[in-house]
Here is the input.
Amino acid sequence: MLMLVLAGLAWMMQILTMLKFLVQYGIDLWGFLGLTILMIPFIISIIMPFVIFIAVLFIYNKFIADREITTMAASGISPFRIAMPAIKLAAVMTAIHLALNIWIVPATQVKFYDTQWEMRYGLAHLKLQEATFTQMAPGLVVFVENVAGHDLSNLMLYDNRGARGQMVITAEKGKLVNTIRGLSIVMSGGSIQYRDDNFTVGTFDTFDMDMNMADRGQNNAFRVRRVSTGDLISLAAHPKGLSPRELKSIMAEVTARFLGPLMNIILVLICMVFMLKTSLLRRASFNMAAPMAVGAMAVAQTGFMAMSDAVLAVPHILTLGAAQIIAIIMLFYILKSDRFQS
Here is the structure.
């Protein structure tokens, strides 16, 4: 339930930041919601360790407040057995988190950026109105008498984007098409007027006008979240030709994808150690176990994020993974001790 609530709040914030797609590009509501939904797997992968920690902390703190754990301890149940449901939950969520990081998040990020580009510059957002001058980009105006889907008739195009001249094209027919650089209009049966230092007039049977509204290559700029896990491992193993900034982002992403899920187990074990090994025999009116667990969680997560950002090579990733495994073993050892502590 906590996961749904927090993911929903984050999704709503994402909707607010992307409202320009509804207003500026004229995208229909369902297409817009579909675009924002593609961010949900990434949002979940970010908040999952915190959500599991908070949920476990809340439940076990309630158990302690209701003296249920005290009753279980009096009947001889060890702290490790009491903690086992939370540990099993963490293990299951770690597997789900790993699947999200390795397969689902990269795939949805690729779809998200491609869909976003199409909405901005592709045919998906373009709605030419009949007998109306439409500004498709600064300095680029199109007038169309008849529009039938992507087929145009009796059109005029004015292009003043060039630094050296102006161009006016008229044509009997035209068709909007997608190319690797974005939108193009393929026109037939028309004339062209070009003015720079001279004035040139000509006719054509077929003319392909590249609108150059945006280069799709810009959309394919290096965004490490959309790189598949196999390609990411290959880049990390063979970093030649990468800039320092790209290398750093690749190493941080590899660390987050493979070692980030382990934080689910580490944070839950930290919670269990503080809740079960420091609080049962206290009779104070205010139990400090929960605040101490939150502080330890913040230190552990901050330390992991700082070390992830400092990773610059594969051996560093292996070292950080080994440190996480050692931390898990140590926390397990503390929980496995049979006696409760005050």
Q: What stands out?
A: Strands lie at 132-137, 140-148, 151-159, 166-179, 182-195, 199-210.
